[in-house]
């Protein structure tokens, strides 16, 4: 009996823990060409809008910015349909490489939260929105020309969901825009390859 009682106690505790464990769920947001909000902006064509392109990209082609030809991109996911009261465990943005792929070296890039509303089919280099550099997310340079990315944006999604900040999306650009010759290219929500549109995954428990 002395051996049986402690063993029984352990088994009861394990059952209780198992029963109380919450199931992790996933919400996926992957816009199409009708509701997607992503576009490139070009320093060499500062008044042009590129919201219908099949790609978003970040490019630097001149040394020491001797020619104004940098390219940045903007990306926003709407996730207001997430229920109130849920506990967000993690969130990731998925970006999928598009041919001819990435090029150059030392081409790490950053995602920076945007501070103001921007209109997808109107935004350009001249009217690009302000950003909050205090929340910059730095992403390592690719090791392959066709490398896809899974980027942790948990803190951003949590802050938006808890109404601590608005959701204006991200500016995506090269970490170093002064040195050439480098860039990254990803599918946009206009791409014909629907499965490779930019995607946001949110893991949560209720």
Automatic annotation (TrEMBL):
Signal peptide: none
Recorded superkingdom: Bacteria
Protein's cellular compartments: Secreted
Assigned keywords, A-Z: Secreted, Signal
One GO location term (cellular component): extracellular region
Domain Carbohydrate-binding module family residue range list: 37-202
InterPro entries associated with the record: CBM96
Protein name per UniProt: Carbohydrate-binding module family 96 domain-containing protein
Protein source organism: Olleya aquimaris
């Amino acid at each position: 009996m002395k051996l049986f009682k402690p063993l029984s106690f352990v088994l009861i505790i394990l059952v209780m823990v198992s029963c109380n464990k919450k199931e992790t769920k996933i919400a996926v947001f992957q816009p199409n060409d009708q509701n997607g909000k992503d576009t490139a902006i070009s320093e060499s064509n500062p008044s042009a809008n590129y919201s219908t392109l099949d790609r978003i990209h970040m490019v630097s082609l001149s040394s020491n910015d001797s020619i104004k030809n940098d390219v940045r991109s903007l990306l926003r996911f709407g996730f207001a349909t997430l229920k109130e009261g849920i506990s967000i465990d993690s969130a990731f943005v998925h970006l999928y490489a598009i041919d001819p792929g990435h090029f150059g070296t030392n081409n790490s890039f950053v995602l920076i939260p945007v501070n103001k509303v921007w209109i997808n089919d109107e935004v350009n280099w001249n009217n690009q929105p302000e950003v909050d550099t205090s929340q910059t997310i730095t992403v390592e340079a690719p090791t392959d020309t066709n490398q896809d990315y899974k980027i942790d944006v948990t803190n951003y999604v949590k802050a938006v969901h808890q109404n601590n900040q608005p959701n204006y999306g991200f500016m995506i650009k090269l970490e170093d825009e002064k040195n050439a010759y480098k860039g990254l290219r990803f599918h946009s929500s206009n791409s014909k390859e629907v499965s490779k549109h930019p995607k946001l995954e949110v893991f949560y428990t209720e």
